Structures are given as structure tokens and as C-alpha cells.
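TICKET: design request
STATUS: open
ATTACHED STRUCTURE:
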């Protein structure tokens, strides 16, 4: 292919673009060589999702890495958190080939150092990009004196066993107060969206007291049923309907690479990821003797730091984004971290994010008491929220400045700019952030009641949209 524009391909946290228009196997090979040079790795591990282009890209990356002298362990088809498991358990830098929830023509690389430590712009990705750009212009690097080996290894069973060792699910049972007749197993509908959840869920759930109803488990990187992005309401409609039809206790939806998990209750109603964060935080704190630090980003609900404090923990607020969460977890020794985008991070999982482990926590919490899931999570879902509202603007900075100007002179609010603009009052708060990739401003509002939330939402949108 022609020389690729890496400014469009290398993002803040990963590599992502259209195949073959923006990148192809020849470029993947250069990325493999650059990854080894930047990490100094003598051995690495790679994995890939079910997209048609993923196996070829992953093998090309392995060839590039081996040419630089690194031994490559290929774990093949896997979820992103399974790759993180392999990086942690084998203590090797890793590369996962996936474009998560993006359409079929996209693909990408999520890279990490040994122990699943993230590789982002400030932690090696910019250096990798610079090497690849140089090699595109001046020719590929000379191979190492000794070429590395490429071998295969199956880690799915070990990954599943590790997750099950962290959450006790042996005694779970359906809630006694549920509408359906009591049975001996918790009934859960799982929508894999034709993504990697269809590969990992059967093995993780094997032997557990769970009545699994699979939905779209067939691996298909063209996503024939719906986009594998459960945060978009239209993509969980089938799950909601199936939960009601099956009279199930809950439903789970995974994104394309199965590192995010979204939950619906027994009525098919969405459970806020902030509520899941609070629920899991309470469980992790209890497991840690009622003490520990929990990370949450600044658009999670007020309920998250409240629940953390109520359970003896220390909440720490961060910017949005996995690199910030993981860095703060490493800095503070946090036991858990959660984002409102349904990413959940665990100290016991090398500070990496795993939606599967969060799902097991929800199943354990539900199956060891008598309430339905909607009743159980009500204690963690205390406020009214707008959800994330995107506005297309011609000038992000000017629109954001107009909002700041409208609130900074008020005595009844405080402002901070940790990530975008957050304005906080006694009964409400909002955060307004610019998208890094699109001409959008993203607004999140939370208040103590629906009326106030709607009022603040409308006030801010009027300023944003002129």
C-alpha cells in the first residue's frame, strides 16, 4: 500500500483504522518490529478477535516481532481481557488485534507491556509510531542476528479458571422474590453480539449453577445482527426482549472484543454502569477487609464515591480513559476501578479491565440474596442522570468557553477542569468534555431528581448549541 498516514491511525491508546484502506499486513509487520524495539522484549504474546482481517494482521505482527529477535506466543482467538490475562500470567508484553465495537471494515492493535501495563501515547505508542513512520520512508529495519520463534498456546481454560478463582459462584441460586418460579440455577441471557463473548462465555460459565441462554454466540466479524456496542440502546433491544421472554433473572451484553459488559435486570431495564461500579466496589472492599482505594472517573454517579466511603474505602476521582485509570490504580494500589462506559478494572487482574469479572460479581451478588436484580441495584442507583449527550459544534473551545463563562461567576457552584469542565452545585453536577476524534462536545448531567436534571441539561445544551 501507499505510505500510510499514521496520524489518522495511531490514536491516544491504540492503533485503529480501516483495512486495507488505512493499513494492512505489511504495516502490521512494521508495528510488530517497532513494538519489540520499544519494549526491548525478548518474548511477546499476541491474540486476535473474530474479524476477517484479524488472523492475517496478527500473524504479520508476529513475523515483524520475530524478525527483531523476539519469541512470539500466539494465543489465537481471544477476548481483549484474555490477552491481558496472558500478558499478566506469562509476564510478557502483549498485542491484541481488534477494533472493539467498530464496524467490520475496521481493525486495530491494543498493546501492553508485561503484566498488562498499558501502552499509550505517553508510554511507548508515540515511539512506536515514530519508528514505523521512519521505516515507511527509509525501508524496513535489518533483521536481528537470530530470528525469534512463533509458537501457539491455548490460554482460554486458564483464563476462565483464574476468573472463577476470584469470585465464588458455587452456591448461587435464583432470587426468591423473583417473578419466575424458583429453580436451582440463575437464568441469564447473554448477548455476545457475534463477538468474542461467544468464545469466552461458554468456557467461563462451564460447570457453574447457571442456566445460560446464548444470543448471537456465532463468531462473525461482520456483525450481522447488530453492532457490538451495548452502550447504544438500539443494540440491546434483542437482549431486553429475550430476557422478558425467558423470564430470566438478568441479561448481559458484551462488546466486540468482550472487554466491556453491560447489564439489564429481570425486566429488561438497563442497569447503570455506575451502579455496577458501586456494587462491585462494595464487594471488593468487603473482600479486602473493608478497606482500600477505589478509582472512578469523573462522569460516574455521585453514588460511587458515596458507596465506597460507606463501605470503608477511599474513592479517587480521575479523568476519563483507561490509561488514566490504570495509572492511578498503580500509583495508589487501588483494589478496583470503574468507568461509566462499562469498563471495570481489578487489582487482582493486573489492574486491567475485564467485563467478564464484573459480570461474575453481579451474578454472585444476585445469587446469594433474595432480591431481584432491580431491587438489589436500587441502593446503588440513587440519582437522576441525562446519559451522555453529544452535540456537534463548529468550535469546541468557543462553545465550552461560553458555558464556563455562564457559570464561573455564580456563588452556588464550583468549577474544575480535570477533564473538560465540571460544574457542581448542591443538588446537581454536569461535565462537558470535547471529543478527541470528532467535532463533538459530550455532556453528562446528574441531579437529585429528574426535574432538576432536565432543567440543567436544557440550560447547558442551549449554551452549547447557541
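STATUS: resolved
RESOLUTION: sequence designed for all positions
ATTACHED SEQUENCE:
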Amino acid at each position: 500500500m501507499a505510505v500510510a498516514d499514521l496520524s489518522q491511525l495511531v490514536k491516544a491508546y491504540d492503533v485503529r483504522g480501516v483495512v486495507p484502506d488505512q493499513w494492512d499486513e505489511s504495516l502490521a509487520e512494521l508495528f510488530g518490529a517497532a513494538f519489540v524495539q520499544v519494549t526491548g522484549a525478548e518474548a511477546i504474546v499476541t491474540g486476535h478477535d473474530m474479524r476477517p482481517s484479524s488472523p492475517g494482521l496478527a500473524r504479520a505482527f508476529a513475523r515483524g516481532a520475530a524478525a527483531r529477535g523476539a519469541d512470539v506466543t500466539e494465543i489465537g482467538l481471544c477476548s481483549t481481557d484474555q490477552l491481558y490475562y496472558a500478558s499478566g500470567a506469562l509476564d510478557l508484553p502483549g498485542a491484541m488485534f481488534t477494533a472493539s465495537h467498530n464496524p467490520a471494515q475496521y481493525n486495530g492493535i491494543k498493546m501492553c507491556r508485561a503484566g498488562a501495563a498499558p501502552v499509550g501515547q505517553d508510554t511507548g505508542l508515540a515511539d512506536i509510531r515514530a519508528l514505523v513512520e521512519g521505516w515507511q520512508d527509509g525501508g524496513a529495519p535489518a533483521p536481528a542476528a537470530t530470528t525469534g520463534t512463533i509458537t501457539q498456546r491455548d490460554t482460554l481454560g486458564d483464563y476462565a479458571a483464574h476468573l472463577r478463582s476470584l469470585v465464588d459462584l458455587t452456591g448461587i441460586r435464583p432470587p426468591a422474590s423473583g417473578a419466575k418460579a424458583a429453580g436451582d440455577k440463575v437464568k441469564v441471557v447473554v448477548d455476545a453480539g457475534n463477538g468474542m463473548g461467544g468464545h469466552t462465555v461458554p468456557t467461563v460459565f462451564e460447570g457453574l449453577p447457571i442456566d445460560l441462554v446464548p444470543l448471537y454466540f456465532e463468531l462473525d466479524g461482520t456483525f450481522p445482527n447488530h453492532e457490538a456496542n451495548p452502550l447504544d440502546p438500539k443494540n440491546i433491544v434483542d437482549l431486553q426482549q429475550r430476557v422478558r421472554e425467558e423470564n430470566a433473572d438478568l441479561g448481559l451484553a458484551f462488546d466486540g472484543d468482550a472487554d466491556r459488559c453491560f447489564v439489564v435486570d429481570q425486566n429488561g431495564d438497563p442497569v447503570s454502569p455506575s451502579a455496577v461500579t458501586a456494587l462491585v466496589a462494595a464487594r471488593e472492599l468487603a473482600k479486602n477487609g473493608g478497606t482500600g482505594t477505589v478509582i472512578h472517573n469523573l462522569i460516574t454517579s455521585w453514588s460511587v464515591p458515596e458507596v465506597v466511603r460507606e463501605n470503608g474505602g477511599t474513592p479517587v476521582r480521575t479523568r476519563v480513559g483507561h490509561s488514566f485509570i490504570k495509572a492511578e490504580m498503580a500509583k495508589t494500589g487501588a483494589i478496583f476501578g470503574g468507568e461509566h462506559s462499562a469498563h471495570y478494572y481489578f487489582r487482582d487482574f493486573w489492574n486491567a479491565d475485564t467485563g467478564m469479572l464484573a459480570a461474575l460479581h453481579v451474578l454472585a451478588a444476585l445469587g446469594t440474596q433474595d432480591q431481584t436484580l432491580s431491587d438489589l441495584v436500587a441502593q446503588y442507583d440513587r440519582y437522576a442522570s441525562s446519559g451522555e449527550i453529544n452535540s456537534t459544534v463548529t468550535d469546541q473551545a468557543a462553545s465550552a468557553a461560553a458555558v464556563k463563562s455562564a457559570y464561573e461567576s455564580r456563588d452556588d457552584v464550583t468549577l474544575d477542569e480535570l477533564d473538560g469542565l465540571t460544574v457542581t452545585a448542591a443538588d446537581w453536577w454536569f461535565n462537558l468534555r470535547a471529543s478527541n476524534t470528532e467535532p463533538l462536545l459530550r455532556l453528562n448531567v446528574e441531579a437529585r431528581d429528574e426535574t432538576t436534571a432536565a432543567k440543567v441539561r436544557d440550560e447547558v445544551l442551549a449554551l452549547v448549541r447557541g
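CLOSING REMARK: The chain has four domains: 6-159, 187-266, 273-378, 384-464. Residues 25-39 form the longest helix (15 residues).
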